[in-house]
Queue: 4 jobs
Job 1
Amino acid sequence: MTVDLPGLSALALTAARHAAALIRDRRSAGRVAVTATKSSPTDAVTAVDTAAERLIRDVIRAARPDDGFLGEEGGVEPGSSGVRWVLDPIDGTVNFVYGIPAYAVSVGVEVGGRCRAGVVLDVVSGAEFSAAEDAGAWFRRAVDAPAEVLVVPEPPELSQCLVATGFGYDVERRTRQATAVARLLPLVRDIRRIGAASLDLCNVAAGRVDAYVEQGLQPWDLAAGGLIAQEAGAVVTGAEGGEPSERLVIACAPALLETFQSAVTACGF
């Protein structure tokens, strides 16, 4: 299927910018009210999540009425074009609720079931990460800043690696993940838990962390950020070298993969 990837990328960025502006405008001072929960009592949804996803869909639908959608808040909307937009209107909702400045708009574009373009926009800083399949990944510090090419740096040895991770909302899964992270911690430089998977993956792309491992990711967590990491030169894989999935996602430089994957497995992820 032939598609205009630059055009899809540009539309993704436009939609993400509109959503980020709405989120910034509607975030009141103090703690934001939680309007619903999903997988557990700690898995929050706010009115702004819902409004931002609705806006993203409206912007895209106005330009491409035949496309489908998969969104964290709005679910599945079938399309007929072979293009599906995978949306996380606020990745890092708990950070958003508490006013911690680490949450993002994530917009991925699937063609034939594979993510081929994507944007992750850091709402507070305004930084933009984007990628298109086989065309590379880019970073802008702000809307008007020049685009910088992202290239994953050569990694240090495992003991000197800074590793990003996250935890699910289910209590049993969190407990298992905490145990695995405790086993991994003595093997690496340190652990970072930012609370937004899309930003973690972009941080691998930007060399801000050396590796990333997490369980429980959904398609909207992974789509755009995973492509950005891959296009910057990272390997994004799953358990035992399989496809990245809810079971496990690993992202790191190719030179680190064998060592890091072995450590992750040994630690019980």
Note: The radius of gyration is 18 Å.
Job 2
Amino acid sequence: MEANVVTLIRIALVFVTVGLFQISSFYLQAFAIFMVIFVIYLDSLDGYIARKFKVASEFGALFDIVGDRIVESIFWIYFAYTGMISFWVPMIVITRGFLSDNVRALAFRSGKTPFGKKTMMKSKFTRFLVSSRFSRGFYGITKAILFTYLGILIFLNTGIEKFKWTINSDIIGTLYLFSDILVYITLFMCIVRGLPVLWDGKEILFDKIYPRTINMIDEKSSNI
């Protein structure tokens, strides 16, 4: 239960963080940067709590993924809204999230989980890409660095506007080039970790397991 509470807190704090950025206050935006780091840190904390107090559950694993989706989607959408990244990026990320989470939800109905001993991933390679500590950790770090970095750029823009900071245009260009590189690395990891879920769950997508389940339910209902 404690781990799920942390997930709920993380979801609430991401709204607070975006709100702080929106206020356009130099000091509040500086605080918002630390909030970004804290919100992302909580992602690892809820998993630690679940293991530490032995309260890990199949629902908790799914709820943790839901929390991840909400947090990262809000950050992606907000930074696209500010013009820091292309609007195509959150569109791709959110579409990938809906597809992979739909497959995971259907697999969960048949007793399969995203991670752990009953994972829906079928091969060592797909398990490595999706559920290994290296893959999850690397993707988490890239998101943490990217969102924090974009927050710093917003902070710098506010400083330039309000305090007339003078920064060489070449330096500004380099900073934005680096942000583009971080965006594409993170987007690449997002896609690479999503495709194996669709591949290992292809029977759910193409063999129409879900419609058959609905038909079975309808048949049982009609026999009552």
Note: The chain has a mean pLDDT of 82.
Job 3
Amino acid sequence: MQRIIVLNPKGGSGKTTLATNLAAYFACHGIKTALIDYDSQGSSTDWLERRPREYAAIQCISAFRHPHGVTRSFAMRTEPGTEVVVTDTPGALDLMQFSHLFAQADAILIPVLPSAIDIRAATDCVNKLLDNVQVRDPERRIAVLANRSRTNTKVYKKLSTILTEMRIPFITTLRDSQNYVTSAEEGIGLFEMQQSGMVRDLKSWEPVIEWLVGRGCDVQAGKDKGDKEEKHSPRQVPVSQGAG
């Protein structure tokens, strides 16, 4: 089972956008996926509740809720056969409180907005992870991506320079696109939407998927299995070969 954590202690960085689209990506490729929502705002849970039934199923684990009638450990169990678990962490996160999750993680993705405050918060988060939390092979398992950013700005170049010095991969930039608004409203992922107008956004995700494949998330195995299933998303689009 591959465990992917989306992390940024600062709110509004795009954690839920990243987590939900990752979960949808794996699910629509036939990979049995669970999405764990630790954020008290419940945005990932709301997204899953909007998800149409004809789309690939994703298990929802609302970790911020207190379970009724069962133990917490039972409520947090993934379904048998789960291959990928994507975790959406809360804002104002206490890294030490969640240290057990980071120790188990195969990949930790940190989305960053293009502002000096957000860059400072992200670099502080990375430093704390490297100094205080047991992360296996941190230089291979932690990566940063820019969210709603333009690559020709000074603040973008500053972020790139800082991460290079820290030896943390800076893998891609996600656009400020209406497609993400549609994705959030409809409970579907970018890879499940109509292809018209999606090319630039899908292209920006290719480095994310390639990086995750390098961490052991084998999309092709799930895709082969998913191709044999009768139930498909009516608007699912193929992923380009560059996406792994």
Note: The chain has one domain: 2-234.
Job 4
Amino acid sequence: MAKARIALVQMRSGTEPERNIDAAEAAIRQAARDGAQFVATPEVTNLVQKDTKALFETLQTPEDDIAIKRLSALAGELKIDVLAGSLALKGDDGRAVNRSVLFGPGGQVKAQYDKIHMFDVAIGNGEIWSESTNYAPGDRAVLTEAAGLKLGLTICYDVRFAYLYRALAAGGAVAMTVPAAFTRPTGKAHWEILLRARAIETGSFILAPAQGGTHADGRKTWGRSMAVGPWGDVIGVLDHDEPGILYAEIDTDEALSARQRIPALKGGREFAGP
């Protein structure tokens, strides 16, 4: 099968897209110098802005967005696969979209995925999030390929919906990306557990680059970017919320081995009820 050196970029994106992409580009260039064949950035790489008015004043269409233009050119220059974990972009119905975009070594867009599950929650202590107010959800799971890896694309809150990961694995994915901007309360309680659970259930590598720290708009995110192996072992973690790069070596034979040892993808049964 395939082996690949991957890099997960941890960021602290703010309210100025150009500065955010400057930071992403610097990290991607460093990862490429360090031999990464596939580099992934976190959710909302280009813009972390919780004020609705300011968000929509800043958003660009995919055709005009600076992140798409620059990351496409960068992937082509470096001859590597680059995943913009997600970009906040102007959509077609008056709302935004939260979109993963994979750029190939030729600079081409290889795949796009719009986040399916919206973060509409009331965590407690007055912390309420309603992503669907500003963002239109996607309705299609996406499989693609990067650095020889059959890859399933997901974003952040998707990680709580195991059926999506099972469907991607059943479709052939041996690795899943989970770019995220987890809140601190949910990150502390659930981040590692959920990532490891999705890996174990599907016998897949889980690659999760994250936003971390206190952002310019006041939002606080958990960080702790993580790579998990198909047996559920943490093969790499940035154990903090500062910007940085996490490297991991991926061997898809490990996913095949895990699925042979625990053939859960083939062992499902139909049942009645409840």
Note: The longest strand covers residues 81-90.
